[in-house]
């Protein structure tokens, strides 16, 4: 809601439930007097009355957005209401609807009305909209949902036959996410990977593992409940460590036989139950290349949707300079080796997922993958000072 719409209607504040919109003039004076930066988007907040004063706690756009999403996850009625003014990303058997222009893909959004028309046209029950999952919202609190037009549909055979007609109607194509991910902008890529992971999780958790009864999704899709024993199931991610090992001058890259031809990456592996991140890094490096980690340093993390939802935890690690002889575990890897700073820097510069390197040179994972960021960090600062493992 635009703050300026209410400028003439209020003195200092406009109350909306427990939220307030502060009159822009009041805000400007107040912030100027207090030396705040006016470019900060502080206009929503919480008010309480103390004696003759109103106390305001201003909240940033990020905080109000987060609180709004929390409310939609907790309150089915609020979430259903948000669908009226919300927008929907569409999927078909977990492939998102995309529109292509040149090398780039875009993910179109549809209003509730457009979605109802589409479902009616293809003979599907509009009740299906309740299968959609909440994946985010705009700064103006337009809620964003994702719906798979085929999964869980009672008329799934029919729906799959209608795929091409739907694509024509929607002026796009349902494209495998693996194929499109690296040609999407970061925001769409993040929303679509979240959406796909959540839709896949719901599809795979239709029944209670204790009672065998069908589970019921809440409106936002943030959980499923078994009506007979009230067990609540929440969407899950598997923790995975990804480690770039260095001996001080070179870094260790490896490939699995399932990787695209010529691609090398950092070492990765699922955490075992009961393990800390540090223990998982030490074990994976020992298991896959037969080396003992000496120091490690956390870098960053990333949600990764393939093949199921993982939380990738990225680290830099070192081994002792004298103990660098690799023993590749051929059950896990096809090849592994040490690469010089120059070799990796050159590969990083030339890296292009559309024209994979010719003439036997290796190439690295694309920018959106955390492995790429880890390798880039090492190239830019090869001698970081990690902690003992
Ligand atoms: N985003 C990135 O930059 C990036 C880079 C590399 C790998 N990855 C991802 O990391 C993941 C793990 O890498 P990996 O394949 O080398 O792991 P890994 O070395 O642990 O080997 C995989 C094997 O581990 C076992 N395993 C144990 N727990 C598992 C679980 N929860 N789910 C599936 N298998 C389990 C299975 O036997 C499987 O075959 C892969 O899914 C891959 O997609 C992401
Ligand atoms: Mg591995």
UniProtKB/TrEMBL annotation:
Cofactor(s) listed: Mn(2+); Mg(2+)
Subcellular location: Mitochondrion
Keywords from the UniProt entry: Hydrolase, Magnesium, Manganese, Metal-binding, Mitochondrion, NAD, NADP, Transit peptide
GO molecular function, one term: metal ion binding
Keyword Hydrolase: yes
Catalytic activity line of the entry: NADPH + H2O = reduced beta-nicotinamide D-ribonucleotide + adenosine 2',5'-bisphosphate + 2 H(+); NAD(+) + H2O = beta-nicotinamide D-ribonucleotide + AMP + 2 H(+); NADH + H2O = reduced beta-nicotinamide D-ribonucleotide + AMP + 2 H(+)
Function: NAD(P)H pyrophosphatase that hydrolyzes NADH into NMNH and AMP, and NADPH into NMNH and 2',5'-ADP. Has a marked preference for the reduced pyridine nucleotides. Does not show activity toward NAD-capped RNAs; the NAD-cap is an atypical cap present at the 5'-end of some RNAs.
Protein known as: NAD(P)H pyrophosphatase NUDT13, mitochondrial
Upper taxonomic lineage: Eukaryota, Metazoa, Chordata, Craniata, Vertebrata
